[in-house]
Structures are given as structure tokens and as C-alpha cells.
Amino acid sequence: MQPKNSTFSERQAASVAAKKALLEKFKPKPTVQAEAPIDHEAERRARAEVLRAEREAEKLERQRAREEAAAAAEKARLEALAAAEQARLDAELSIDAQKRAERKARKKEIKEAAKNKKETRSVSKPGGPREERAVDPFEEHRRYIQSLERGRERRRA
């Protein structure tokens, strides 16, 4: 579609310009350069460092949780030992208290028996002067030895 009043030289110039434009279309165009070059390796290292830091934090959290669990278990074990020791001491004290009460009861019975014996002796004998009796030294020694043996038997019981 050329204008009707165009000359040969104009048409030839237009043809050369069209061919030139067609060749320019196939030539490589200059690329647009970024202001700062993108360092993909640095980005990858940064992502890896963030991931490493997250994993380290998780690892420390798991370690802290394990240590807390171990500390709680140790505390529970020590409390159980203390409770068992306290129960043992309480049992010993109750046994000691029971033995002490039994011992007191026995002594009280012995004292009452001696008191009753003394009262019956004083009631059965007249209140007059006592008769002097001859003392056999061998018999006296035998009674002394028997009293010592009775004392030993009481201490063993």
C-alpha cells in the first residue's frame, strides 16, 4: 500500500528501511541489568542457616525437656525415699512407745504386787516387836544369787 504519487527512489528507500527493521527484530537486544546482582548462593546459605538455627532450637528444647523430666523423676525418687524413711522411723517410734508402755505396765504390776504382799504381811502379822531369827549365811548367799539371776532374766526379756 503505497501512496499513489510516490517515486521509485522513495519506494526503494522504504524497502531498504523495512528490510533493516526486519533485521533489527532478529538482533539480540541489550538485557536489562539489575541495580545489584542477585546472589542466589547467599540466599540458599541464608535459608540453610535459618533451618539449622530452627533445628538447633528444637534440639535444645528436647534436651531441656529431657533434663526436666529427669529432674522431676529424681525429685520423686528422693521424696519416695524420704517418705519410706519417715514411715520406718514412725514405725520404730510406735514400736518403742508400745514397748515402753508394756514395760511401765509390768513395773506397775510388780509394784502393786509388792505393795499387796507387804500389806498382807502386815495384816497377817501382829504389830508387836519382831522376833529375832537365826540367819544361815549359806542360805542368805543362795537367795542373793537367785535375786541376781532374776535381774538378768528381766533385763533379757
Give structural notes.
The protein is mostly helical. It has a domain of 80 residues. The chain is 79% helix and 0% strand. The chain has 3 helices and no strands. It is rod-shaped and about 185 Å long. The protein starts with 7 loop residues before the first helix and ends with a helix.
Give a quick account of the main beta sheet: strands, pairing sense, barrel closure: none
Which spans of ≥5 residues are poorly predicted at pLDDT below 50?
none
- pLDDT averaged over residues: 88
The separation of the N and C termini measures: 142 Å
Q: Helicity level, as a percent range?
A: over 70%
State the order of secondary-structure elements, H for helix, E for strand: HHH
Q: How big is the Rg?
A: 60 Å
Approximately how much beta-strand content do the residues carry? Answer: under 5%
Quick summary of this structure?
This protein is an all-alpha fold and 157 residues long. It contains 3 helices and no strands. It has helices at 8-26, 40-124, 137-156.
Distinctive features:
mainly alpha; 157 residues
Give the SSE layout:
Blueprint: H1 8-26, H2 40-124, H3 137-156
